[in-house]
Design brief:
The protein is an alpha/beta fold and about 260 residues long. The protein has nine helices and twelve strands. The strands form three sheets. It has a five-stranded parallel β-sheet, sandwiched between helices. Strands 8-9-12-10-11 form a five-stranded mixed β-sheet, sandwiched between helices. A two-stranded antiparallel sheet has the order 4-5. A hairpin with a 7-residue loop joins β10 and β11. It is globular.
Length: about 260
């Protein structure tokens, strides 16, 4: 009989090469993989023999409610053995990974976590935007744009008062409110970047200021999933000499089998 086990795994921000080696090894040993909407489907090839179940959420559309996901984890762990809960980015940054781990404790299910590269860090970096830069930004906030109550996080108003870089996840539906909060504080000229499908080959971005960004979003037809980055680091971003596609072409010449 297989041991009932849950491993919560971070899949990284979207580029399949940005998953960790440890995550690949865990996927290869999985009996069941429950994966989210932001997980690149290519990563499922690292679990060739596992049962794969999509449990993702997108813009209010739910394949499963969270309570159902919790119950599915337990039932599959008890019946199949090793369940891998594969989440986009890092599972402990707005990924509800800790909630799922807490739920299975009472069922005598072994648990483990494999951290992932957070989109809050990697997506700006792919556009040459460092969240901190000496003489420019000494700290950064990572804030959810939409809370459990479906309202803009109150932390945005606090972040506006600082000089820190602000990275907002799941905030596109609240962009007008975010812009209004900065405008109210007299920060209409603050640089802002919006990056859609970050680190993927279909990445799109728009760069402007608080007073111009909504027009830029409309012009470039930017939408979710996207990360909003606000602060002087956007103006001071690095110019990268290679595009995502060129890096991808090089990496495809050096493929490893981590299983």
């Amino acid at each position: 009989m297989k041991t009932a086990r849950l491993t919560v795994v971070g899949a990284g921000p979207g580029d399949p090469d940005l998953i960790t080696l440890k995550a690949i090894k865990v996927l290869a040993a999985a009996d069941v993989v429950l994966y989210d909407a932001l997980v690149n489907p290519i990563l499922l090839t690292h679990a060739p023999t596992a049962e794969k179940i999509f449990v993702g959420k997108r813009m209010g559309c739910y394949a499963y409610q969270q309570e159902q996901i919790n119950e599915l984890i337990v039932s599959r762990a008890l019946s199949h053995g090793h369940v891998v809960r594969l989440k986009g980015g890092d599972p402990f940054i707005f990924g509800r990974g800790s909630e799922e781990l807490d739920f299975v404790k009472e069922y005598n299910i072994e648990t483990a976590v494999v951290p992932g590269i957070s989109s809050a860090l990697a997506v700006p970096a792919y556009l040459g935007i460092p969240l901190t830069k000496r003489g420019c930004s000494e700290s950064f906030w990572v804030i959810t744009g939409t809370t459990k109550r479906h309202t803009l996080s109150a932390d945005v108003a606090l972040a506006v008062q600082s000089n820190a870089t602000i990275a907002i996840l799941m905030g596109m539906s609240k962009l007008s409110e975010i812009v209004a909060a900065f405008a109210k504080a007299g920060k209409e000229k603050t640089p802002i970047a919006i990056i859609q499908n970050g680190t993927r080959e279909d990445q799109k971005s728009g760069i402007g200021t608080i007073e111009t960004i909504e027009a830029i979003v409309k012009e470039k037809q930017l939408s979710s999933p996207a990360i909003i980055v606000i602060g002087s680091v956007v103006r001071n971003r690095s110019t990268l000499s290679e595009t995502i596609s060129s890096i991808k072409e090089k990496s495809n010449h050096n493929v490893f089998n981590y299983a």
